[in-house]
From TrEMBL:
One of its GO terms (molecular function) is magnesium ion binding. GO terms for cellular component: cytoplasm. Tetramer of two alpha and two beta subunits. Its cofactor is Mg(2+). The keyword Protease does not apply. This is Phenylalanine--tRNA ligase alpha subunit. SUPFAM superfamilies: Class II aaRS and biotin synthetases (SSF55681), tRNA-binding arm (SSF46589). Its main location: cytoplasm. Mg(2+) binds at residue 255.
């Protein structure tokens, strides 16, 4: 039996040396060491041996098993490495091939329009001012000639955090804050871009939108200065043939006040469905700064005057790019955004 065991060990080594795959290796393990393997069959015949021979044959059997298991482990390592190298060879990267392009982002249409608005007014000598989006009732309403319970507040249904704290409904509070800091120095020429909040939500309104307001305060500023400034702005934004029209309106913080229309960007003023066949499209509100607002901010309304205007960036973008639903600007649909 000892000779048979040694012969079995040699046979296992020969089989292992010829194994070419992990499947072959597993077959060899089952053949020699499995429950019905050749080594197991030999060991089952040890019952016929004498008590003196049994320990000696058992030792030889254990040595043969240990040798086969060691050879199996070594061969397993070699074959796994071969599989790994073969896989790496098949997955090799051809560095001469062009790389996979990484999609590049672009500016949002609102960002493009806002930058264009800012550049136009920066070119006219205005500076950019900023202020808090969470505002006090005083700056958002009272300092702008809108005392508590004033009916004009209904035009700006608002998000109140408390009775005295509100998400700003316009960027006009920054105008008052700026004048308070600069008074009595002149001139004051600022634009105020930023987010504002109102309870609106439909195809042309959003509860959060972007606004740009402008303010100019100095001696002898007239309504003609306002008309000239906004006329230049509309021609720069919508093209040199754009015409402007001023319609009387009401805003608590300006007097006189006017809505500003431009000739329809779709039909050139001839009349179409977009402009309801009037030839005109409303774009912003404006007016001469109310004397009370000047006084509250620290200026003498007998000595200085000013004008102010405000526009929604979304409104300008919709007119400029022919967008018929404001919600497209906030849905993050790449099919829409990649057009700009």
């Amino acid at each position: 039996m000892r000779a048979k065991l040694k012969e079995l060990g040699e046979e296992a080594r020969r089989a292992l040396s010829q194994a070419e795959s992990l499947e072959d290796l597993n077959g060899i393990r089952v053949r020699f060491l499995g429950k019905k393997g050749e080594l197991t069959q030999i060991l089952r015949g040890m019952g016929s041996l004498s008590a003196e021979e049994r320990p000696l044959i058992g030792q030889v059997a254990n040595e043969v098993r240990a040798a086969i298991e060691e050879e199996l482990a070594l061969k397993n390592t070699v074959l796994k490495e071969q599989v790994k190298q073969q896989k790496l060879k098949g997955e090799g990267i051809d560095v001469t091939l062009p790389g996979t392009p990484v999609p590049r982002g672009g500016k949002h249409p609102l960002t493009l329009v806002l930058e264009e608005i800012q550049n136009i007014f920066l070119g006219l000598g205005y500076s950019i001012a900023d202020g808090p989006e969470v505002e006090t009732d005083y700056y958002n309403f009272e300092a702008l000639n809108l005392p508590k319970d004033h009916p004009a507040r209904d035009m700006q249904d608002s998000f109140f955090i408390s009775s005295e704290i509100v998400l700003r409904t316009q960027t006009s509070p920054v105008q008052v804050r700026t004048m308070e800091k600069t008074a009595p120095e002149l001139p004051v020429k600022i634009i105020v871009p930023g987010k504002v909040y109102r309870r609106d939500d439909d195809a042309t309104h959003s509860p959060m939108f972007n606004q740009v307001e402008g303010l100019a305060v100095d001696r002898r500023i007239t309504f003609s200065d306002l008309k000239g400034t906004l006329g230049l702005f509309t021609r720069e934004m919508f093209g040199p043939n754009t015409r402007t029209r001023f319609r009387p309106s009401y805003f608590p913080f300006t007097e006189p006040s006017a809505e500003v229309d431009i000739s329809c960007v779709m039909c050139g003023g001839k009349g179409c469905r977009v402009c309801s066949h009037t030839g005109w499209l409303e774009i912003l509100g404006s007016g001469m700064v109310h004397p009370r607002v000047l006084e509250v901010s620290g200026y003498n309304s007998e000595e200085v005057t000013g004008f102010a205007f405000g526009m929604g960036v979304e409104r300008i973008a919709m007119l400029k790019y022919g967008i018929d639903d404001m919600r497209l600007l906030f849905e993050n649909d790449l099919r829409f955004l990649q057009q700009f």
